[in-house]
Fold:
Amino acid sequence: MPRIKHYWLASYPKSGNTWLRLFLSNLLNTESNEAININSISIGDIASSRRWVEGCLGIEIKELSDDEIDRLRPYAYQWCFEHNQYDSHTTHQFHKVHDACRVLSNGQALIPGQASSGAVYLVRNPLDIAVSGANHANISIDQAVGSLCDARFALAESHEKMDNQLRQFLGDWSNHVSSWLQNDMRKLIIRYEDMSHHPLPTFQHIARFLGLPSDADSVKAALLNCQFKTVQQQESEYGFNEKPPKATSFFRKGIVGDWVHHLDDSQVNAIINCHHSIMKKMGYLDSNGNPLITPNAIEN
Structure:
């Protein structure tokens, strides 16, 4: 019976995580040449799933505070990975995570690397995230810019109702990126822009890192089945269970550089002023600090 390898698929929201999971679902689908239905992504539990964490812990956590739950989450993941090692149907599990990779007050890493096989971390230009995020949350672009620059920003933080998602502390975009770049987990850093502009070599690189089929024919077939127009058509026909209730659509455009049509100078400057250092490191600014649509190489 094959041993299961567990990988984290990490990103700030609206950075290509769903695209990556759809690609992996199609790459692993050896029973059919048809595109996987977007509502049938079943490659692994999401890190913020209340059901998964409670199942790993064996207790209900509804009476606990967010901070108390955070201190239990690393133990839940480690237990799950250690007790879910073998399966006759799969060799890989992939777990989406939007949390920053932070160290908790007790010194424990929220996202433990020692029990997993590694992580793929997706990065996207925050200028484009602002536009996509505003549509996703049905908020103004100014509000989306504010979230990107908010050191206290978190998802699912409301206590008005019991959410099926646990709180996910992101912080601001720069700190989120830095938290994943600086941890000592085995990882692969991938930019959304490279996924879009150079899909075949980029997704082959991802597949090799994950120990999956990376030959050109397999990767091309998987990419064809999750191309943007395909998933847009599926959402139009069947809906998408991950779409927020207030959003008009989940798969909006996916275009690199669409920010030039939506952000004014003050919004662009606000993001650059907040994230200049990491944007330059990731190739999103030129040597003079001006924003780029086609990014430079990532700085070492």
